[in-house]
Amino acid sequence: MTSTDAPPPGLHDADANGPVQVLNADGTFAPNAAAEPYLDLIEGLTDADCEQFYRDMVVVRAFDRQATNLQRQGQLALWPPSLGQEAAQVGSARAARTQDHIFPSYREHVVCTIRGVDPLDIIRLMRGLTHGGWDPAAHGNTHIYTLVLGSQTLHATGLAMGLVFDRACGTGDPDRDQAVMVYYGDGASSQGDVHEAMVFAASYQTPEVFFLQNNQWAISVPVATQARVPLARRGPGYGIDSVRVDGNDVLASYAVTRRALDQARSGAGPRAIEAVTYRMGAHTTSDDPTKYRTSDEEASWARRDPIARMRAYLRTRGASDAFFDEVDATASAAADDVRERTTALGPISTDVMFDHVYSEPHPLIEREKQWLADYEASFEEGAR
Predict the structure, then answer these.
(1) Residue 23 within a domain
(2) Residues 6 or more apart from 158 whose CB is under 8 A from it?
(3) 278 and 130 in one domain?
(4) How many domains does the chain have?
(5) Which three-class secondary structure state does DSSP give residue 201?
(6) Over its length of 384 residues, how does the chain's per-residue pLDDT go in tens digits?
(7) C-beta pairs of 332-339 under 8 Å, 24+ apart in sequence
(8) Residue 97: exposed, middle, or buried by beta-carbon count in 10 A (0-12, 13-18, 19+)?
(9) How far apart are CA 8 and CA 188, in angstroms?
(10) Is 309 helix (H, G, I), strand (E, B) or coil?
(11) Are 38 and 182 contained in the same domain?
């Protein structure tokens, strides 16, 4: 094995089997020993399922690139790229049931769109036109982005504890039982909120999956500085079963998450997943990754691109040129649509500060809203 072919940092484990992997970097179907317990879930996937995974990844990458360009052109205040992390997100999101609750961090663009969030709602948030982005109840129980990183794990655990108290899990009815999945990164995994959330999750045996996207960099701090052992080993310290998965393998991500959610939903308690992936872009558009990482490192991970890997695999399953052309056209049209709707957005309305303060209409909020409207109108009257 040459140095250029060696696994990149983070894609190894003390476990001889390594992380769960179904597809090699070249798209070859070659499940490793760690993947054997999940093969029944992989075998149950149809051509349509696999093609949907690919479509999700291609479309969100086009959206992500468009949003990055929009920020560079002054249309957005900030943008956190998801380039390179599509497989971890698509596989895990597609593994969830409609009744499950999803708590994203701030980079899970495709997770949210899969669950029914309009990509323009993400744009509005990053443009500064909304305080939250969307109503979770109206978008597949998908909660809003968390910009105070790590706190979403506490929010998720609190809701999961409620599911235990309400007996909304472990009933044996898969159509009724619910689970919670929370996304966070390797940087957030070093924060106290995450560890406190795991303590309570284990104590109350919540129906919860902690989905850690280890993209190797907490802004400019490498994961090797944060942890001397694989991050998946932290879960067992709290009594939480944990699995490490190749986060650039969408099939592996799907299977591992599907099994973990099924177990959590059935009442078996929380689970943790470490998806080993890579942030190909900047931490956000305010960051310059050339200051802290090498082009050789980026090239090493580029050869493991999750979209190229899945495209090669679909070829072996007989996917046609017409299919790939149609996906590319769909992605281009989606990106164009986002650009058009973004540039048509108007200024922020003062009304938004009153939205979603309470889940139901509240007389105090209505009075305050009316007072502000009257106050602003008084300036217009005075000018006449």
Answers:
(1) no
(2) none
(3) yes
(4) 2
(5) helix
(6) 333 344 444 444 435 457 999 999 999 999 999 999 999 999 999 999 999 999 999 999 999 999 999 999 999 999 999 999 999 999 999 999 999 999 999 999 999 999 999 999 999 999 999 878 898 999 999 999 999 999 999 999 999 999 999 999 999 999 999 999 999 999 999 999 999 999 999 999 999 999 999 999 999 999 999 999 999 999 999 999 999 999 999 999 999 999 999 999 999 999 999 999 999 999 999 999 999 999 999 999 999 999 999 999 999 999 999 999 999 999 999 999 999 999 999 888 888 888 878 889 999 999 999 999 999 899 887 666
(7) 332/62, 334/59, 334/62, 334/63, 334/119, 335/62, 335/63, 335/65, 335/66, 336/66, 338/63, 338/66, 338/67, 338/70, 338/119, 338/120, 338/123, 339/66, 339/70
(8) middle
(9) 22
(10) helix
(11) yes
Give the span between the Cα atoms of 130 and 383, in whole angstroms: 30
Residue 255 shares a structural domain with residue 369: no
Is residue 235 domain-shared with residue 373, that is, in the same domain?
Answer: no
Q: DSSP characters for 204-265?
A: HT-SEEEEEEE-SEETTEEHHHH-SS-GGGHHHHTT-EEEEEETT-HHHHHHHHHHHHHHII
Alpha carbons 131 and 359: distance in angstroms, whole number: 15
Residue 99 lies in a domain: yes
Shared domain for 223 and 157, answered yes or no, is: yes
- Domain that includes residue 60, residue range: 33-343
Judged by phi (left if over 0) then psi (alpha if -120 to 50, else beta), residue 13 lies in beta
In a domain, 21, yes or no: no
Q: In whole angstroms, what is the distance from residue 77 CA to residue 272 CA?
A: 33
**At 239, which CATH number?**
3.40.50.970
Question: Are 172 and 111 part of one and the same domain?
Answer: yes
Rg, C-alpha atoms of the chain: 22
The model's pTM: 0.91
What does each C-alpha distance from 46 to 258, 263, 321, 370 come to in angstroms? 15, 23, 19, 55
Please tell me whether residues 42 and 58 are part of one structural domain.
Answer: yes
Residue 8 in any domain: the answer is: no
Catalogue the E-assigned strands of 49-103: 101-103
